[in-house]
Design a protein that fits this description.
By secondary structure, the protein is of the alpha/beta class. The protein contains 13 helices and 15 strands. The longest helix has 19 residues, at 258-276. The structure holds adenosine-5'-triphosphate and magnesium ion.
Length: 387
Amino acid sequence: MPALILVRYGEIALKGKNRGYFEKALFNNLKSALRGFDASVNRAHGRFFVQGPAAAEQEIISRLSKVFGVVSVSSVQAAPLSLDAIKSAVLQLVENRATENGSFKVEARRANKSFPLTSPEINRIMGAAVLKKNPHLRVDLHDPSLRIFIEIGPKEAFVFSGHAAGPGGLPVGVTGRALLLLSGGIDSPVAGWMALKRGLALEAVHYHSYPFTSMRSREKVLDLCKHLALYGNGIKLHLISVTGIQKEIHDRCPPELGIILLRRMMLRLAEGIARKHRLQALVTGESLGQVASQTLESMAVISAVTPMLILRPLLGMDKHEIVTRAENIDTYEISIRPYEDCCTLFLPRRPATRPQLDKVLEAEAALDTDKLVEAALQESELKFIEP
Ligand code: ATP
Ligand code: MG
């Protein structure tokens, strides 16, 4: 028998006029998360139902629980609306899931009020049937080892034993498209995940200084992107060399402003990509107060270079919260691989923490920024990262 998986969604159900649009997006995202599986997706009564091969059930559940907009998923057994049919589904579930000498609790919910029995009546009848067939089990209403959920729907009943949590949020794509500045660090993959969670479809850009940064550090970024791609339906990654730009900054500008100037160049490049690919905002992993370039003064001087909206989803998070999130989405272990980042090249001993815009503009006048941007964009490399 194929596996049947019930997919619940939350926030999008609330969105009034947008509801149809959001549901359609979620439907498409569920389908693309299941690409490669012989699975179908259908919507009924405010949920989705996925059918697929029983052998792939666990993997399908793991994919579905990474789709933003999904609140929870359960592997269910469907039964016609008759007591006998429901009873045999319940007994089947107990046979599959109950542990030796364990305890259980039946929790029925009657969404369909035309069903002739109340929820407590269903609980009693099903509980008695389980005990009769499995006298070694006992009922525990507070801390059972097996919960048996029964949902009486309009056309059929569903029997299941639990939920896997989804990530919540909004379906990717419904709020727009943005460009993630993806370093090899801990923060920016988490920032990307949080932007995806709010319904943004992402492309990503990574700046490298090959050959000063190694192929290993490039692989690290590709691996990070692969993990984000699981949540984001695949991600286009732009790889851009800033080696030439860094040399120019190093040769022509005061060392204490090096990082600020490089960051401004990164934003110019990002803006160029965003305009070309019709991306509406930039997303960074910046927080506040972490490093010299993340003081309010530095951030103001850096972001003054572009009129584009810059989103910083990590602003309100402590480092340990960011690390915990990175662990949950499996990017942490990749991020802590020890390969160098382009920003650590030519790192000044005393970077400015309170740069002044006029001084920065003065220093920047030594650079032909338009030409540098154009040259770097021309050499940029584009990769599509599959989930
Ligand atoms: P991360 O862990 O994301 O590298 P961080 O705390 O180390 O962040 P910074 O190194 O100051 O902070 O970088 C701030 C943000 O600038 C990063 O989160 C990222 O969005 C962007 N950024 C930094 N370096 C790069 C890079 N090489 N390529 C693309 N974006 C970068
Ligand atoms: Mg960094």
